[in-house]
Write a structure and sequence with these properties.
The complex is a heterodimer of chains A (486) and B (320). With 486 residues, chain A is an alpha+beta fold. Chain A has 3 domains: 169 residues, 2-Layer Sandwich (Beta-Lactamase), CATH 3.30.450.20; 110 residues; 148 residues, Histidine kinase-like ATPase, C-terminal domain (Heat Shock Protein 90), CATH 3.30.565.10. Chain A has 10 helices and 12 strands. In chain A, strands 2-1-5-4-3 form a 5-stranded antiparallel β-sheet. A 5-stranded mixed β-sheet of chain A has the order 7-9-10-12-11, with helices on one face. In chain A, helix 1 runs antiparallel to helix 3, helix 3 packs parallel to helix 4 and helix 6 packs across helix 8. Chain B is built from 11 helices and 14 strands. Chain B folds into 2 domains: 134 residues, Periplasmic binding protein-like II (D-Maltodextrin-Binding Protein, domain 2); 96 residues, Periplasmic binding protein-like II (D-Maltodextrin-Binding Protein, domain 2). Classes of the chains: A alpha+beta (486), B alpha/beta (320). At the A-B interface, helix 1, strand 3, strand 4 and helix 3 of A face helix 1, strand 1, helix 2 and strand 3 of B.
Chain lengths: 486, 320
């Protein structure tokens, strides 16, 4: 449920209950006032009507005349003049019925009349007004009014008035209040809806701005809600945060560039030092040979021997240059179908001399479902060769090398090359893939093998990882995509 | 962006049930209130300053008190019935009012035994006491605790009539011909100022004092003569008093000399002690007693001067 609906529902409920409470209180108050007014009105009318009845009864007592004629004339007068009166019963001082109206007063729809009781008992000294619903006649207001002065009582007048107009008045105000309540509630909810809409629209704009904020391509002209309320404050804070992030990003980029430059310089330094070291050794050897030949040119045997050494030194330099060229070529593999199982077996075959020489136990197993992958055949052989030679160099006499290959998932294959050699110390584990890094003796390794592996694998969108426990084992794991570059 | 957590079906069902329940309760409550508001049933009682009928069924001997009815019957009863209630409570008799049209009729009723006591006008009492063997027993006290009243001549405030001498050639309204304060005494006062009926434009008698004042206020007459007590009721309604008489005795309560002395004593004792006895249960009714709040004993000689006044006026008229 959205915030808008929740607020509307909650406040709508509160307003509805509040409006209902106010309406009900007002309705009851109005009802009370209307009834009170009607009661007072009827009392006044009753008191006024009672006077001629009272006079008639007094004169009848004083002069001994029959009051019926006077009373009947008075009843006729009431029927003509007093609106809303329904019936009149006059009882004497002994509560015996003297006269009553047997005709319909003022209205044709009043189905009166059950004759009133011949005798009734009345509460002395009290005027009693009773409102009740009579079957077929609706609401009747009946008044029992003593015809008495001070301590002398001549009788009781019982008058009935039509109570339906009062009820209609209350129904009318009930409806007005109901409609008013609905209208006020609806208008309030409508105003509330627009206010909430405005509020949530501001929030939405802010959310959009947050969603669209991109550090790579920061847009400072995103439309943010501008107002002097909490939303405006939030927007302002977001704007400041945005600026701080951009500043941090720029700062980070500068720092990254500096680090990259420093790394690059360090790399070039290490590369130069490696090349210089390797080349220098050979050049020194060549220079020594040339110096000896120049010193004793007639010594053919020596010259032949030294020329052989010069040749080896030049081959070493050529080898270094070749590896460097391979390293630089790594980003341009030429893809074709490669059967890794076959490639590994060929490499093992090529290295069999060394394996036998060191009596190494080499164990290669490939899973049956190992697929043919799309890769550069020569580079793959270079990778396998480097890894296996690296392991052969690492293990001692009667060492053990285990090679496993299989399908990692639908898209990749894996290759584990594990040896139980000396392992790699933790401080060297970060450096083993750098060019010219080697722990081998001078002249025994160029330090370009593993860096070439890393370059080739990355050129194939693969990964290479080395795990080593010094003195126990080293595992190189290669993951390569089956379909070639991703 | 985090995904919004969707409500589970159970929570949604619970919400729907709660909402429907609230709507149902709201609807039922509205219907209940509507039904309650439109149910007008109820009883409204109001106490009326009316007591039970005293004495009628208590076996007390019934006695009648005569009173002249110049007004509608209910007004006469409103004025005198509280005093009857007081007597009923404080004597061994049940007193009931008996209305008559004139004081002469009341005097006749007293003489004939139709009534046992009566509120009598001073003039009629003075002129008929010998004939009907009547005697005054009590007279009411005024607000100043004096058993006196005055006759006053009134005129409208906006008229130029400021004194009794300004009445020459004017029209004059008087009360009943049998009224001392409304007819005989004004005529006496005018005569004493040398103004006879012939000196006035018109003199007309009306049934009661209030009619006189209304005629003056309605500009039908230039001036009028009434009892001071009645005139005071209208002082702030456009009239002023231009002349007042000497004090007169208030109108007496009269009985026949042949009446039961026990009953007479009972009336006298009750009305002389009305103030003391009114404290207590009779208090609510006492408020309605009006000018008859207290009484004092009447002297036969109090009303002798009336005959002298009548004789003086008749002599003046004869001379005129």
């Amino acid at each position: 449920m959205s915030l808008k609906i929740k607020i509307l529902f909650l406040i709508g409920s509160v307003i509805t209950v509040l409006m209902m409470t106010i309406s009900v209180a007002f309705l009851y108050q109005f009802r009370s006032v209307v009834i009170h007014k009607e009661v007072e009105n009827i009392r006044s009318i009753t008191d006024a009507i009672s006077i001629p009845f009272l006079d008639a009864l007094v004169y009848s007592e004083t002069d001994g005349i029959n009051p019926d004629i006077i009373l009947e004339r008075h009843l006729s007068y009431l029927a003509d003049k007093i609106e809303g009166i329904r019936f009149v019963h006059i009882y004497d001082s002994n509560d015996r019925l003297v006269i009553h109206s047997l005709f319909h007063f003022n209205t044709g729809d009043y189905t009166y009349y059950n004759p009133p009781p011949a005798t009734r008992s009345f509460v002395p000294g009290r005027q009693i007004l009773n409102i009740s619903r009579q079957e077929g006649n609706g609401w009747i207001i009946e008044v029992e009014s003593p015809l008495a002065i001070a301590g002398k009582k001549w009788g009781t007048a019982v008058l009935g008035f039509d109570g339906n107009p009062v009820r209609r008045e209350i129904i009318s105000i009930s409806r007005i209040l109901l409609y008013l309540g609905i209208a006020v509630t609806a208008i309030t909810l409508l105003v509330l809806y627009f206010l909430i809409n405005r509020l949530t629209m501001s929030l939405g704009r802010l959310t959009d701005a947050i969603d669209h904020f991109d550090l790579e391509t920061p847009q400072t002209d995103l439309p943010l809600p501008e107002s002097d309320d909490e939303i405006g404050y939030l927007s302002h804070r977001f704007e400041l945060l945005q600026k701080r992030l951009i500043e941090s990003r720029n700062h980070l980029a500068v720092t990254q560039r500096q680090i990259y430059r420093a790394e690059k310089l360090a790399f070039i330094g290490r590369l130069s030092a490696g090349i210089a070291h390797e080349v220098n050794n050979s050049v020194n050897g060549i220079q020594s040979c040339i110096y000896a030949i120049e010193k004793d040119p007639q010594n053919t045997e020596q010259t032949t021997s030294y020329l052989k050494l010069i040749n080896e030194a030049l081959k070493h330099i050529e080898n270094i240059v070749k590896k460097l060229l391979e390293y630089s070529r790594k980003n341009n593999p030429s893809l074709s179908e490669v059967d890794l199982r076959e490639t590994i077996q060929n490499v093992i075959q090529l290295c069999s001399y060394k394996i036998k020489e060191k009596k190494i136990d080499i164990d290669f197993k490939a899973e049956k479902n190992l697929p043919v992958i799309n890769a550069d055949k020569h580079l793959m052989r270079e990778v396998m060769m480097n890894l296996i030679i690296n392991s052969i160099d690492a293990v001692g006499e009667e060492g053990r090398i285990r090679i496993r290959s299989g399908r990692k998932n639908k898209e990749c294959i894996y290759l584990h090359v594990e040896d139980n050699g000396a392992g790699i110390s933790p401080e060297n584990q970060e450096l083993i893939f750098e060019p010219f890094f080697t722990t081998k003796e001078t002249g025994k390794g160029t330090g370009l093998g593993l860096s070439a592996v890393l370059g080739i694998v990355e050129a194939h969108d693969g990964e290479v990882r080395a795990q080593s426990k010094p003195g126990e084992k080293t595992v190189f794991t290669i993951t390569l995509p089956i379909s070639g570059k991703k | 962006m985090n995904a919004i957590k969707k409500p589970s079906p159970v929570n949604r069902f619970k919400k729907v049930v709660i909402t429907l329940g609230a709507v149902l309760i709201f609807t039922l409550l509205t219907l209940f209130i509507y039904a309650t508001v439109l149910d007008l049933s109820g009883t409204y009682e109001q106490e009326r300053n009316t007591a039970l009928v005293h004495g009628r069924d208590t076996g007390k001997p019934v006695k009648y008190f005569g009173v002249v009815s110049r007004f509608p019957a209910h007004i006469i009863y409103q004025r005198y019935q509280p005093l009857m209630d007081y007597l009923n409570q404080n004597t061994g008799y049940h007193f009931s009012l008996k209305l008559s049209q004139t004081y002469e009729e009341t005097a006749t009723q007293l003489a004939g035994g139709e009534v046992d006591a009566a509120f009598m006008g001073s003039y009629v009492y003075a002129t008929s006491r010998e004939e009907h063997n009547l005697i005054s027993i009590l007279k009411p006290l005024n607000q100043d605790s004096l058993a006196i009243r005055r006759s006053v001549i009134i005129a409208r405030r906006d008229s130029r009539i400021e004194s009794i001498d300004d009445l020459r050639g004017k029209t004059l309204a008087l009360a009943s011909e049998h009224s001392l304060s409304g007819n005989w005494l004004p005529r006496y006062m005018l005569a004493r100022h040398g103004i006879l009926a012939a000196d006035l434009n018109t003199i007309t008698n009306f049934p009661n004092h209030h009619s006189v004042i209304h005629r003056v206020l309605n500009r039908e007459y230039d001036a009028g003569a009434v009892r001071d007590q009645v005139a005071r009721e209208y002082l702030n309604r456009g009239i002023h008093i231009i002349h007042s008489s000497e004090p007169l005795p208030t109108s007496p309560i009269v009985v026949s000399r042949d009446r039961d002395p026990k009953m007479v004593s009972a009336i006298i004792n009750a009305l002389l002690t009305i103030e003391r006895d009114s404290i207590g249960e009779y208090e609510p009714v006492r408020e309605d007693i009006g000018p008859h709040i207290r009484y004092t004993l009447s002297d036969e000689a109090d009303y002798d001067f009336i005959l002298e006044i009548i004789a003086f006026i008749n002599a003046q008229n004869d001379a005129g």
